[in-house]
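> @MW can you paste both from yesterday?
MW: sure, first one:
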Amino acid sequence: MNCQLLPADALSDFKALLTCYEIAFEMENFVCPNDKHLLSVLADDRFRAFVATVDGQVIGGLTGFILPQYYSSKPQFYLYDMAVLPAYHRQGVGRALLEELKSYCTTAGFDNFFVQADLEDTHALEFYRATGGIAAEVMHFTYDL
């Protein structure tokens, strides 16, 4: 398995990640936006997408946004979505993706990264706690770097 940050021209891998999201999040009637829009998202300097691959196939990933702060000169990263195809659950893929994000954020000089999770999503809550996330009253998870 390999985890990596997608470059701005990685349209096919980005679309494969969106398919992973569609499957993992059980998104009925999902219609993928057109290529022009997806390329503009990938090219946005405040957007990042990471993918996990096996034999060149995208099996999961995460996406999020760089947030400038006004309390600090260091940015934060908001992990917006993360999913792994069901066939690859409990094989360390999610942990590897978080480690890749942590490495990226550390190298780039971020303060931390955080993620929200629904209270009903007990699997996500357990996962973020098990990977070092610190739950806040609003159910944000903060990762100090």
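MW: second:
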Amino acid sequence: MRVRFTAEALGHIAAFQSYIATNSSAAAQHVVDRIFAATDLLEEFPRLGHKGKVSGTCELTVPKLPYIIVYQAGDGDQLIVLGIYHGAEAR
């Protein structure tokens, strides 16, 4: 599987990084790295997540972090990351 990100999903990651970096740039980079590592897992294990709250989507929680990756199957062998949300956010 190939994972592709929407502009909105990349914007979410950038916003998290910017917010966290106000306290610690190292922590911000760590969070971003962990989010991308979780999406890398989807390349090998596309069914790793569970059924999403929105029909046709799946969700994967980033291990040991409060972030949820929302994705769906795309054309062919693609998974499309639609957004990344903090667990405390209303979606």
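> thanks! The longest helix spans residues 25-44.
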